[in-house]
Specification:
Distance between the termini: 40 Å
Helix content: 25-40%
Strand content: 15-25%
CATH class of the largest domain: Alpha Beta
CATH superfamily of the largest domain: NAD(P)-binding Rossmann-like Domain
Order of helices and strands: EHEEEEHEEHEHHE
CATH topology of the largest domain: Rossmann fold
Bound molecules: NADP nicotinamide-adenine-dinucleotide phosphate
Number of helices: 5
Radius of gyration: 19 Å
Largest sheet: 7 strands, mixed
Strand order of the largest sheet: 3-4-2-1-5-6-7
Length: 246
């Protein structure tokens, strides 16, 4: 029988964490022990793992004892605080937040594109922004075959990228609009109404006029392709779709 791994999912109750659990179950990942971790708010609750449920535990400094691999998806602040603790406990961290992506000692990996970068990891491995991942899978073979001179990219990103509260907000706003109560809408997840609207604004605007999301696409793509000065420009737009970026 092959090796089985003890796995922790940090942010197990979130939009991304639930998807991680679903994929682990769907792929029949060889799991010896599964720890579903989140904040004190959802500790004691249940999350689905295939046909069974797992009890959520509160994330704590000692959560990683005996854990082989921890998948982090609870935001950059949580990753910055807890990923180094996991690393010290001997756990391999795969971090889905932006906390370590541009750190020189942390490989930024898309398995289909630069798996060789994994060789030098020191316990923390980052994965890129969701839009960057999709783009580099397409760019890599083109770059290998012909050499890319310049990239101009526009993305149309679903509200799932903001988290479950934004998905709930889109649903509530749609209900208000179809019941002719659109005047009651009070945007919270975004600066403006997202239902039946497109917002060319993801994350904060920076002084140079790009948003942080756009700069993530630029900087992360350069790091993954190993082309530090590749000319790239990005425009990222939030669209009123629940799931799936394009
Ligand atoms: N790379 C990508 O492709 C990609 C795509 C989307 C999102 N993300 C990133 O993934 C992260 C999560 O996104 P999401 O959409 O899943 O957000 P979400 O639906 O809002 O879920 C957040 C998760 O983090 C947990 N959490 C929040 N604060 C915590 C704390 N102090 N201690 C422990 N757990 C805490 C929440 O637990 P409770 O239920 O207890 O509140 C919940 O499980 C973010 O960093 C986001 O930027 C990455």
């Amino acid at each position: 029988m092959g090796k089985k791994y003890s796995i922790a999912v940090v942010g197990a109750t979130g939009a991304v964490g639930r998807e991680m659990l679903a994929v682990l179950a769907e792929r029949n990942f060889p799991i010896a022990d599964l720890r579903a971790l989140a904040s004190h708010r959802s500790a004691g609750g249940l999350v689905d793992f295939g046909s069974r449920s797992v009890t959520v535990k509160e994330l704590a400094p000692d959560s990683f004892q005996g854990i082989d691999i921890a998948l982090f998806s609870a935001g950059a602040a949580v990753s910055k605080e807890f990923a180094p603790l996991a690393q010290r406990a001997g756990t391999i961290v795969v971090d889905n937040s932006s906390a370590f992506r541009m750190a020189s000692e942390v490989p930024l990996v898309v398995p289909e594109v630069n798996p060789q970068a994994l060789k030098n990891h020191k316990g923390i491995i980052a994965n890129p922004n969701c839009s960057t991942i999709q783009m580099v899978v397409v760019l890599k073979p083109l770059h290998d075959a012909a050499g890319i001179k310049r990239v101009v990219v526009s993305t149309y990103q679903s509200v799932s990228g903001t988290g479950k509260h934004a998905m709930d907000e889109l649903f509530e706003q749609c209900k208000l609009i179809v019941s002719l109560q659109g005047d009651k809408i009070k945007p919270e997840a975004y600066p403006h109404q997202i239902a039946f609207n497109c917002l060319p604004h993801i994350d904060e605007f920076l002084e140079n006029g790009y948003t942080k999301e756009e700069l993530k696409m630029i900087n992360e793509t350069r790091k993954i392709l190993g082309e530090a000065s590749l000319p790239i420009t990005a425009t990222t737009v939030r669209v009123p779709v629940f799931v799936s970026h394009s």
